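Lab notebook, bench 4. Still working through the backlog of constructs that have no structural model yet. Next entry is a single chain of 262 residues. Request: give me the structure tokens for it.
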Amino acid sequence: MRRTHEATVDEVTVDGRVFRVVRSHHPSATRTFLLVHGIGMSHRYLRRLHTAFARTDSVVSIDLPGFGGTPKPGADLDVSAMAAAIAGLLDHLRLQDVIAVGHSMGSQWVVELAVQRPDLVSRVVAMGPVADDRHRTAFAQARALALDVFGESPRANWLVLTDYVRCGVPWYLSQLRHMVAYPVEKRARMLTRPLLVLRGARDPIAGLAWCRRLADAASDAAVVEIPGSCHVVQDRAPRAVVGAVEAFLATRARPRSRPATP
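Model written out:
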């Protein structure tokens, strides 16, 4: 274990899969946020958001197996299997009722986590969710990502580039195949937890119409836009993201835990 600022960083192995866990414990916190990165990425581009949440709450950011320089798992993991792996990690850490915040493909993983294990999740936040059901091809997603580069800060683009290099092409392409195949809007219909869909107002990947369709699929959901931000909204405007999440949480009381679904 090593300590950075006020966070501890550990590598945790669960069922043979290695996670990196960045954890900030707030002594008076009654809530824990779980931050999950997107395809190709790591906790690094969630660091500003982690710090902002950690001012008042406990926060856990993770690098999933195969991402952020963690060892590649021995077998391919689709969205359902990766969500089950996250559930196993939360069980290992003895965490439940987390507020699960996912960015980009991380939105798929946290939605699926909440569907599979509602006992572990109290509310779900999907930032820049993918993949738009009317542009659900690898080519369309790559084109939107290329457009997004021109709107992001040099810092965000550097974080994305260097994490993509660490991820490697084979694992990225394997996960991309699962990303474009996963019907997140259909799974959102099965959510029993409130859903916040959040996007940067200039995000070419998660368009407003798509975000509204995703929110409409869930039984209890809202859409919020952060002005002036593109896809990596949490790095450019972490305080605005925290404010939007806090406003959403204030309108949704924490549900009581339920037994895990079969």
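Notes after review: The chain has ten helices and nine strands. The chain has a mean pLDDT of 94. Flag for follow-up if needed.
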